[in-house]
Amino acid sequence: MVPVALVLTLALSGAALEMKQSADPDDLHVLIARYEADRNDLIQLYPIESSPARRTRLGELYRHWKAEFEKLPFEKLSPTAKADDVLVQNHLVRAMRQLDLDAAEDDKIRHFIPFAQTIIELEEARIKMVPVEPEKVAAELGALTKTMAATKAQLEKERNPDKHVADEAAQLAGRLRTTLERWFKFYDGYDPMFTWWVEAPFKEAAKSLDEFGAFLREKLVGVKPDDHNAIVGHPVGRESLMADLQNEMIPYTPEELIAEAQRQYSWCETEMKQASRMLGFGDDWKKALEHVKGLHVEPGKQPALIKQLATEAIDFVEGHDLVTVPAMAKETLRMEMMSPDRQLVNPFFLGGPLIIVSYPTSAMSQDAKLMSMRGNNVHFSRATVQHELIPGHHLQDYMESRYRPYRRPFGTPFWVEGWAVYWEMVLWDLGFPKSPEDRIGMLFWRMHRCARVEFSLKFHLGQMSAQQCIDMLVDKVGHERATAEGEVRRSFNGSYPPLYQAAYLVGALQFRALRHELVDSGKLSEKAFHDAILHENSVPVAMVRAVLTGDIPAPGSKPAWRFLDGLSGENVSRK
What we know:
Layout: H1 4-11, H2 29-45, H3 52-70, H4 79-110, H5 116-127, H6 134-157, H7 163-187, H8 192-221, H9 238-247, H10 254-278, H11 285-293, H12 302-319, H13 327-331, E1 335-337, H14 340-343, E2 355-357, H15 366-375, H16 378-388, H17 393-400, H18 413-429, H19 436-460, H20 466-477, H21 481-492, H22 500-518, H23 526-535, H24 541-549
Parallel strand pairs: 1-2
């Protein structure tokens, strides 16, 4: 057999040939690191996402590295290297597809901002150190201002413009305004002739950009320029969702996932009614939920509660020997408080390296204060602190930094968020909720995960509006209206990919099905199972399964793991 080190050396060309003999020849992380370094360098050279030159150059890079990884002798690689090969090739296919999607989207946006390329080329020339010609660029800025005026006049005549695309164009106008100012400041004052020629036309162009962005938001999108809380969003359509699911190695349609979420919700509602009866509210679980919302600590006491709840969760998982919790992971827990503005988008906790706590500040209105306390009450918090810290996101982040960190570019919310919600399920099964109020706190979040699947996928399928999503969270889950608005705003403001909100529940069900396959069958202990997941880093859960079962598919294979089939007819909790 030809040594793998020699095969790799012969197969890879250019910079990839330079792998040192001392590197592990059966581990692709060296090559993946070089690809990632190449990509990061190009992104810094072409920082404007809507730049055609950036897309062209990144496309060349992706195709080059895809061809290089395709040369590897897949069958001769170790299981770990096989997994890395599949992951990086899947990542590259996804990246190339995203470039095509971005190009198609920019074609639509160009109708609203036909002058974008002028600003993009000015900035890219500056980054590449092309000598600037002040008189020439002054004329270009003057023409830019005139083009904006002509475009605005043309758009005012149009009927029924696509408000979603217009909103994307308005956001791009804001980014271009920032880019233009950065470009101007690079030369201003350092080149006296530049300032003499360019200062006046720059100021006029910058002012016109501000006005143009406001025009798009107010006249075409229907949002006041100073309304930063409006929710517009951009439905991506079924075809795009299907492609994203393929990339996540999930062989289900959006409709199938919605149906499963509805089934899971029905189980939650049944459990909610049981807890409600225990509190004396009969089947009216919403009254019981209102009772629980009122059980919050007074202002200033939330940090102490969070610390107590974090310790309780750690003691529980360690006491049941469920997962390894390194002493350093416990020592490095940190906390910050969330600003009022940020709470408009994230009305609850955020977690990872530290927990960021939502709770009222003195600057908030009285209604906002009450909603924040009610939405972050003791029993809701008890169900989320472990989600954000240990055994959830903090433990994940700790392990990701120490086990296969080179896989982080392949990260997926189905692993990140799915893991945290999976633990909510495990803790429920093991009796973590001590009281009916605790049960309601945990069930509120389980209902929320179910609703996230339904409203986010239906929004992107064009079946629900943002307002209908808010109403669903209020009516079916029991959210405060302000927290429902924050959740929907966060879902569709462009900060998260289309499948992100569905990933919480769906990823948890993937881990649950895998646990049934490996732990309930006696193949692995619970602790060994959970530790093994954390040691694979953030990758599609189907790939975690492939590694743990030793059945790693070849690059380009279609998703085949029907994880929901194993849950058919079974409730989310195993009693």
